[in-house]
């Protein structure tokens, strides 16, 4: 097998065996983002062969707070599968989560496809059916979260699972950069943020995703759930933790770790 295939297999086994490996870039210093994307696609292909189905895409590392926390200074991207979508109770063992962290996001659900390059924020707004509050639970198959951009892209943008809240809103009637989110952990205030934390405008972040994936021949499809990036710093989670977020003017979302 090629190095790309070897690393795809390695990350897939980490997911299934609930283990980590040293950073890819530390072992293979000449890996590029294009290599990482190919590794990610190989990783995804093994999951699809297991019966998983793609239901959306995600953007990560979009806000300065998250970039500074992880030491990764450009956005990344990955795929969402039906296995990754969970209700408000998250079974840590069943989903093989290793070192999960919760982040509050705005999810876009598309009614029309978007195919980059050339997609604009206005195109994203026109193609969106609704937005919803969302917790993405990120996780890393890379040891101790020691990730660079190559590591996180290869590892499906460090995605674990995601929870969609029940609130729904038409984004065309909202000022997305001004949307305010507040987050609690175990009943105590944890963090707050605004839509502007995500590349200035969550719709612009989704446009970036469409254009970036378009270069690899991947589209954002009608019906896709698109996670647009965290509005707040990531917060570690363990069994027993309960996170609640309010995306003011849209709705709420809860993530319980059991």
Kindly describe this structure.
With 258 residues, this protein is α+β, with helices and mostly antiparallel strands. The protein has one domain: Fumarylacetoacetate hydrolase, domain 2. 27% of the residues lie in helices and 29% in strands. The chain contains seven helices and twelve strands. A hairpin with a 2-residue loop joins strand 7 and strand 8 (188-194). Helix 1 (3-17) packs across helix 3 (33-49). The termini are far apart. The model has no long low-confidence stretch (mean pLDDT 93).
Overall SS class: alpha+beta
Amount of helix: 25-40%
The total of helices stands at 7
Write down how many β-strands occur, each being a DSSP E stretch of 2 or more residues. Answer: 12
Instruction: Report the average pLDDT across residues.
Output: 93
Please state the overall shape, judged from the principal axes of the Cα atoms: globular
Strand content: 25-35%
Beginning-to-end CA distance, first to last residue:
39 Å
Indicate the CATH architecture.
Answer: Alpha-Beta Complex
What's the CATH C level? Alpha Beta
Low-confidence stretches: none
């Amino acid at each position: 097998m090629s190095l790309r295939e070897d690393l795809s297999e390695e990350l897939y086994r980490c997911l299934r065996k609930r283990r980590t490996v040293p950073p890819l870039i530390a072992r293979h210093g000449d890996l590029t983002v294009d290599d990482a994307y190919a590794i990610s696609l190989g990783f995804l292909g093994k999951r699809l062969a297991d019966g998983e189905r793609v239901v959306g895409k995600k953007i990560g590392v979009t806000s300065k707070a998250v970039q500074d926390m992880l030491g990764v200074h450009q956005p990344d991207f990955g795929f969402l599968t039906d296995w990754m979508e969970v209700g408000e109770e998250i079974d840590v063992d069943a989903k093989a989560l290793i070192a999960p962290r919760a982040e509050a996001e705005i999810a876009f659900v598309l009614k029309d496809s978007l195919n980059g390059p050339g997609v604009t924020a206005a195109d994203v707004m026109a193609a969106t059916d609704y937005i919803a509050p969302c917790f993405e639970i990120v996780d890393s198959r890379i040891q101790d979260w020691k990730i660079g951009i190559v590591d996180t892209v290869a590892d499906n943008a460090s995605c674990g699972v995601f929870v969609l809240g029940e609130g729904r809103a038409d984004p065309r009637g909202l000022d997305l950069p001004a949307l305010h989110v507040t987050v609690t952990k175990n009943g105590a205030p944890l963090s707050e943020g605004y839509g502007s934390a995500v590349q200035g405008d969550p719709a612009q972040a989704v446009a970036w995703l469409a254009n970036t994936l378009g270069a690899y021949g991947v589209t954002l499809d009608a019906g896709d759930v698109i996670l647009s990036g965290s509005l707040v710093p990531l917060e570690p989670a363990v069994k027993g933790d309960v996170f609640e977020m309010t995306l003011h003017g849209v709705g709420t979302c809860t993530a319980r770790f059991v």
